[in-house]
Design brief:
heterodimer; A: about 200 residues; mainly alpha; B: about 70 residues
């Protein structure tokens, strides 16, 4: 019984460190403070303090359990926001280069889209669960969310690296398109002129 | 008579429209930036609230990755 709060404290310590790291990662990525996740860490700190001040083992355990769930929620919130940001970037990339083939420059593009879909599914599930039962605990899957966030962060980096080469392709594509239109117009004028010359 | 004058006055000098949500947000962020200390992001009004996050989740749910 005495060991249990200590074990819980270790768990909270571990989760708190993870949450801090993840919040910082998302903060640096988005260049803005993630207030909901930071608030969850504040609540966790409050419960940790309360657990340190109480003498009863049961009360201590209850406070640490609450701190643990706030840490998990902090991780989940920050990861959701980080994933949403990555999905926005991938979607913007998709729209920017919809006219050209991407896979010859970024061979992993289909894999990236698969990661994006799976991560989107996670977010959609979260939104639906929240709509059904706003207070239900849905923070146990923080490991999965962290996994997808790490994957998508690397994917977004890969897409950014590929942009320069793809921009050259877009320029080539535009030039060819303009030349084709100019050629077709010239051909149409020539044809019209020839028809007019023959008829007169 | 008085009502007609008022309505004509309003027609000639229309009321300034209420501030938009966007204006309110800019003002809010400027205030937060003015009174915050420490974080450089907060000082420049760069922060994401729970409401913003919820809106973003809903937008992201509409994307198609094919």
């Amino acid at each position: 019984m005495v060991d249990q709060p200590d074990q819980l404290l270790d768990e909270v310590d571990n989760l708190f460190t993870i949450a801090e790291t993840k919040i910082k990662q998302v903060e640096l990525l988005r260049e803005e403070i993630i207030i909901p996740a930071v608030n969850q860490l504040r609540y966790a700190g409050h419960h940790i303090l309360k657990s340190l001040k109480t003498a009863g083992a049961r009360e201590k355990e209850s406070q640490l359990e609450q701190a643990k769930s706030h840490c998990e929620r902090a991780i989940c919130d920050s990861m959701e926001i980080g994933i949403a940001y990555c999905l926005e970037r991938i979607n913007a990339f998709k729209n920017d280069y919809k006219a050209i083939t991407i896979t010859d420059v970024i061979p992993t593009y289909f894999g990236i889209l698969c990661h994006a879909r799976a991560a989107q599914e996670l977010i959609v599930q979260g939104v639906e669960a929240n709509n059904r039962e706003p207070d239900q605990k849905r923070y146990a899957n923080h490991n999965e969310m962290s996994k997808y966030f790490d994957l998508l962060r690397d994917d977004v980096n890969a897409l950014d690296v590929g942009r320069e080469e793809l921009n050259k392709k877009v320029i080539r594509y535009r030039r060819n398109l303009i030349l084709s239109i100019a050629g077709l117009t010239l051909a149409a004028f020539t044809l019209a002129a020839t028809v007019l010359a023959i008829s007169h | 008579m008085f009502r007609t004058i008022i309505s004509m006055f309003r027609l000639l000098f229309p009321a300034v429209p209420r501030r938009s949500e966007q204006d309110r947000k800019i003002k809010e962020r400027t205030l937060v930036g003015r009174y915050s200390h420490g974080s450089i992001y907060l000082q420049s009004g760069k922060y994401l609230t729970a409401k913003d996050a919820e809106r973003q989740r809903k937008v992201v749910a509409t994307y198609t990755f094919t």
